[in-house]
Amino acid sequence: MEKLQRIFYIDNLRIFLIALVVLHHLSITYGASGDWYYKEVEGNLFTKLILTIFTASNQSFFMGLFFLISAYFTRISLERKSIGNFIKDRMVRLGIPLIIFYFILSPLTIYLRVRFGDGSDLSFFELIKQHQGFGFSPMWFVETLIYFSFIYVIIRLIFRIKDNQTSRKWGFPKPAVIIHLHWE
């Protein structure tokens, strides 16, 4: 199997989108609508308005674009590997970081927020005992990618789609189909 060449404009697009993710969460921290682990002191109305407009316009496209890029490379990745190796690769690349976040980083982050942000005297072990510290939070995207990867494999198995058939057989949905699905 031939080695794929890097697609530099996709790399540049991903770098741009990652910068938007960082700016998005910074905006929420400093006054935009939304929830985040840490909130800075309330700003003035003008700042809140500008940051909220930025995050709202950001949310309209940036994560969807990440999913689109991921979907494009998912097909290529599956066609280069067996289904078993594809699933194993996804679990190593996505599943292990998700589990580490869920069981280690999420409880620690939530404890720090509860203890120092909210001023609670709840101990770390009390938080864990009450099952308050577990969640995917910012890893929701990784969790969703795992689901989509499995759904894609299942669809290929059910419809017996062979390598390199995906785009020819199914093509891209017509705009009318997309609009119809949106209004369902």
Sequence of secondary-structure elements: HHHHHHHH
Proportion of residues in β-strands: under 5%
Query: Low-confidence stretches at least 5 residues in length (pLDDT < 50)?
Result: none
**Which of globular, elongated, flat, extended, rod-shaped describes the shape?**
flat
Number of helices: 8
Give the N-terminus to C-terminus distance in angstroms. Answer: 42 Å
Number of strands: 0
Mean pLDDT value: 84
Sheet with the most strands, sense and barrel status: none
- Fraction of residues in helix: over 70%
Please state the CA-atom Rg, rounded to the nearest Å.
Answer: 21 Å
Structural class: mainly alpha
Task: List the main descriptive attributes of the protein structure presented here.
single chain, 184 residues, mainly alpha, 2 domains
How would you characterize this protein structure?
- With 184 residues, the protein is mainly alpha-helical.
- It folds into 2 domains: 1-60, no CATH class; 66-184.
- The chain has 8 helices and no strands.
- The protein has helices spanning 8-29, 45-59, 62-80, 83-117, 124-129, 140-158, 166-170, 175-183.
- α1 runs antiparallel to α3.
- It is flat and about 55 Å long.
- The protein starts with 7 loop residues before the first helix and ends with a helix.
Structure at a glance:
This protein has helices at residues 8-29, 45-59, 62-80, 83-117, 124-129, 140-158, 166-170, 175-183. By secondary structure, it is mainly α.
